[in-house]
Automatic annotation (TrEMBL):
<feature type="active site" description="Proton acceptor">
    <location>
        <position position="72"/>
    </location>
</feature>
<dbReference type="InterPro" id="IPR033905">
    <property type="entry name" value="Secretory_peroxidase"/>
</dbReference>
<feature type="binding site">
    <location>
        <position position="82"/>
    </location>
    <ligand>
        <name>Ca(2+) 1</name>
    </ligand>
</feature>
<feature type="site" description="Transition state stabilizer">
    <location>
        <position position="68"/>
    </location>
</feature>
<feature type="disulfide bond">
    <location>
        <begin position="206"/>
        <end position="238"/>
    </location>
</feature>
<keyword id="KW-0479">Metal-binding</keyword>
<keyword id="KW-0560">Oxidoreductase</keyword>
<feature type="signal peptide">
    <location>
        <begin position="1"/>
        <end position="27"/>
    </location>
</feature>
<dbReference type="GO" id="GO:0042744">
    <property type="term" value="P:hydrogen peroxide catabolic process"/>
</dbReference>
<feature type="disulfide bond">
    <location>
        <begin position="127"/>
        <end position="332"/>
    </location>
</feature>
<dbReference type="GO" id="GO:0004601">
    <property type="term" value="F:peroxidase activity"/>
</dbReference>
<dbReference type="GO" id="GO:0006979">
    <property type="term" value="P:response to oxidative stress"/>
</dbReference>
<keyword id="KW-1015">Disulfide bond</keyword>
<keyword id="KW-0964">Secreted</keyword>
<keyword id="KW-0732">Signal</keyword>
<dbReference type="InterPro" id="IPR000823">
    <property type="entry name" value="Peroxidase_pln"/>
</dbReference>
<keyword id="KW-0349">Heme</keyword>
Amino acid sequence: MEIKSTMIIIFNILSVFSLCCLTFLHASDPPLSLDYYKSTCPNAEAIVRKEMECAVQSDLRNAAFILRLHFHDCFVQGCDGSVLLDDTYTLQGEKKAPTNLNALKGFEIIDRIKNTLESECPGIVSCADALTIAARDATLLVGGPYWDVPVGRKDSKAASFSQVETNIPGANDGLLSMISKFMYQSLSVTDMVALSGAHTIGKARCTNYRARIYGDYQTTATMNTIAESNLKSLKSTCPAAGGRDNNEAPMDYISPNLFDNSYYHILLRGEGLLNSDQQLYSSILGVQTSKLVKQYAEDQIAFFAQFSESMVKLGNITNPETYVDGEVRKNCRFVNT
């Protein structure tokens, strides 16, 4: 009990510290609105939707790719399109940072969306906005909820290779580390658990779940016939000794291409693929997070409602510098010349 009390005290101190930092980092509401393109590019959302429909129809995994791109963009400098920038002689982008390398896909989808937007409304719709709208449509097209997307973001002329490693939660992060990283972005514990539900679609690489399947998976899992079969399959494609790092497995093996609440059912059974996922339910500090996991497992409508709200909050993380020195990129991969 003494150890648990000490850990809870540490958690409370960390929470207060993080919240103090939040007030400083995100003190004002972002200058975004729902009708930003009403007169300048009224068909902007329709264009994004059509391109996303084509992308998801061609490959359901494209929905997960775009959702992940949006998340990785917003956690570094805010939702400013910085993750889309290629490396140049004068700019080091974020794509080759260890956490992003081999993990991010779907850039060509944003390229197609941007090309169509430029044909209809040259120089009007930012890449940051296009990606944010696309993330909403990606979710909707695989069975997830709809939400209105505030727009008006500007694209950054810079990127941050280093912030990728410090800001983005890792697959083996503990609960306190994850909470700290979300709070740094003005996102609450509730936001964290809801946004983690995006793992109901998409896959993870062997390098990110190796520690889990050869670690405490058997400790947390109920190890019924299905769980044993799934673990055996995971180990067959992800050897303990290393290699095959880029082999992939679905984070929700029940319905990997459908946006639903089965991810939370998997956590309740102790079968989360990533350590960071299972921590939400199994961590000794997860009093609040485990309650939320249970709630969303029992009530998909509640999960959808909170996910929509949390995605708006995520999308509203802005980069203040872009409203002073930002731009609308003509090509999402490069700063305008």
